[in-house]
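Incident review: delayed structure delivery

Summary: a single-chain prediction request sat in the queue longer than the usual turnaround. Root cause was a stuck worker, restarted by the on-call engineer. No data loss occurred. The affected request and its eventual output are reproduced below so the record is complete for anyone auditing the incident later.

Affected input:
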Amino acid sequence: MIQFLLEGNGSLSGNYAASFERGADWGEPHSWQWQGYRCHWRVLGENNQRPLVFVHGFGASSAHWRNNAHAFACAGFHVYGIDLIGFGQSEQPGSNLCGQLDNKLWAKQLASFLEEVVEVHLHGKAVLVGNSLGALAALTTINLREDLVAALVAAPLPDPAFMGTYRFPKNKLLRRLRYCVVNISCNLLPLELIVPLIANTPLINFALQSAYHRSIKFDYELQKLVAKPARRLTASRSLRAMCIGMTLRSQDITAPAMLEKLDINTRRPPVLLLWGGAR
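Output delivered after worker restart:
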């Protein structure tokens, strides 16, 4: 699997590599309309190379692949990065606009991206590289449209469903009660106050540091690319939609259920799960 990912048939030409910014502004930026939502994406590399799509994690964006994009482009991939709905420079809708904002919706966005933008029917199936929430969205994409995906690298693959033995209610009345409780609870959360408080104070750097082993104290580019989307006026409504959507999603789109389904699928794309250990 690792050999498959690192195979390349040449390097990115010097002139081409120099024509785009490195760092958080890597690649050529674009916008794409999907189901009425504006989606931001970027691309780097030669058109005739195997497509590879980076899918970011929670609170992140395509800019987070700033230290990876050029290396993969030089290894012979046509590298794409996408901002999932609710993140980065893509739109941040509320639940009244998009319904449940969960990994199934992001998977549908990714599948359409592979068909309409990456055009895998012309350039070959894409390799998906997902981090955290992006790995869950990519795994869900395979679950929905395995015909579009050549392979998946998930680093790591988190899901609250791994942490307990919670059973989703089968009784219609209990499902309705659960729906009401979750909606009321999430709508009572004062996210319009909490999100700006975190985004505009050192609290955001404290929260961000918990996701990194190395110090991010002087990584101002990273701090900026995380804080900027959180400071948008629509950030709190989108976070609320995510809280509701991810809590109320069906059991069949949890990671354990999808991995079990893949395990018995002899035609599945290869999947590489990468996990780190705490020191």
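Verification: Residues 172-188 form the longest helix (17 residues).
Action items: add queue-age alerting; document worker restart procedure.
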